[in-house]
Amino acid sequence: MATKTTPLVHMGTITGGEAREILEENPVILLPMGSHEDQGPHAPMGDYLLAEKIAELAAIRASERGVRTLVAPVLPFGGADWFGPMVGGIAISQSTLTAVIAEMVDSLHRNGLTRIIVINGHGGNVGPISDVARELYQREQIVLPSLYLWRIAYGLLPGILGAEKAAAVAGHGADPLTSLGLHLFPELMRKDLIPAGQPLKRDPVLDLQFTGLGTASFEGAEVAMPNEYDEVYNLGVAKGDPKLCSAETGAALSERLTEICARFVAHFASKVDG
Predict the structure, then answer these.
(1) In this predicted model, what pLDDT tens digit does every residue of 247-265 receive, in sequence order?
(2) 221 forms bridges with which residues in the sheet?
(3) 237 - beta bridge partners?
(4) 86 to each of 31, 49, 129, how far by Cα in Å?
(5) Is 34 within 8 Å of 88 (Cβ atoms)?
């Protein structure tokens, strides 16, 4: 029986000769982005690893189904937002990130590679991606779509775990990233350091209960707040309980995210010129 061969999908590891042949047909290119920040005491700081892996799995699946798809080198540093206090964290300004994305896209477009999808894994990247996509569309009528993986994953959790458990486990430092890490990169996870879930902190100046990053509650009304994440979260963990995370949940999330991305690649390819 012949062994199934996995298609080459990483642009950074294909050779120049292979690139000239593969890229001549203007394949779909996935641009993975993430961040390098606090993900809790038990998880790697580089959540870009997860975005890159999902992009890889989706590219392999789409290619095997007949839509040649590649993965561009991951952009590991997210747009600066709330996570500046983390020792060792690396972020770039929103304006710099916007310029970097625009120039990456322009580099690909210069040589006729115009079918690009952003696979995003960080909230601080949303604005720059949107700015680049809007300017590109207004200038050239080219659509640069993006899939924000963790926003999609939050929506998938109730169907996997049930609404009650999903509400208890969802949040920064918990699910979806901790379960995905336990499934995709178990060797990098520190199970011995997984903390118990705790309520969000209170603002020490106005004595208001934080409800999330940038928000607190006053008599049920939302108040915008400037506090950074370490004043709101506990050791990088938001409201979700990381002890409820599991590799099994991660496997289900990985499969569904991969399938959604692969199916979107096929839809996208069917609507734009190759």
Answers:
(1) 999 999 999 999 999 999 9
(2) 218
(3) 234
(4) 26, 18, 24
(5) no
**7: in domain:** no
Angular region, 119: left φ>0, alpha ψ -120 to 50, beta rest: beta
Residue 71 DSSP symbol: E
Q: Residue 83 has what DSSP assignment?
A: -
Q: Is residue 242 part of a domain?
A: no
Query: pTM for this one?
Result: 0.95
List, in sequence order, the alpha helices (H) in the chain. 16-22, 48-64, 94-110, 126-140, 149-161, 163-169, 177-184, 229-232, 247-271
Q: 78, 84, 163, 159: which is closest to 124 by C-alpha?
A: 78
Give the other-Cβ count within 10 Å of 168's Cβ: 17
pLDDT in tens, 99-130: 999 999 999 999 999 999 999 999 999 999 99
Tell whether 36 is covered by a domain. Answer: yes
Domain of residue 91: give its range.
16-164+247-271
- Give CA–CA dist 10/127, Å, rounded: 26
d(CA 63, CA 69): 5
Q: Is 90 part of a structural domain of the chain?
A: yes
Give the pLDDT of residue 3: 58
Can you tell me whether residue 203 is helix, strand or coil?
coil
Dmax of the chain from CA atoms? 69
- Side-chain half-sphere exposure of 185, counting CA atoms within 13 A: 20
The string of DSSP letters for 105-130 reads HHHHHHTT---EEEEE--GGGHHHHH
Q: Are 67 and 11 in contact (CB under 8 A)?
A: no
Place of tokens 């809790």: 40
Q: Count the residues in the chain.
A: 274
Q: Give the whole-number percent of the chain exceeding pLDDT 90.
A: 97
